[in-house]
Design brief:
The chain is an alpha+beta fold. The protein has two helices and two strands, in the order αββα. The chain crosses the membrane at residues 44-63.
């Protein structure tokens, strides 16, 4: 259980560090990525980007 928590934590840290690079590639601005302002705060829901990155991770995991 602890091992999975560490893996998830490291994946989130890695994704957070790669966010500026992914945005330069166009991720986060795809159709299906929602960005809206509610209660004076900006919200971002990257549905399409999440699906694409998940499929890419799945292909890499099966390939390795």
């Amino acid at each position: 259980m602890i091992r999975w928590l560490i893996v998830v934590f490291l994946a989130l840290v890695l994704l957070n560090g790669l966010t500026p690079w992914l945005q330069r590639l166009g991720f986060g601005r795809l159709p299906g990525d929602f960005r809206f302002r509610l209660f004076g705060r900006e919200w971002f829901i990257p549905l399409t980007t999440t699906l694409i990155l998940s499929a890419l991770a799945s292909v890499i995991a099966r390939w390795i």
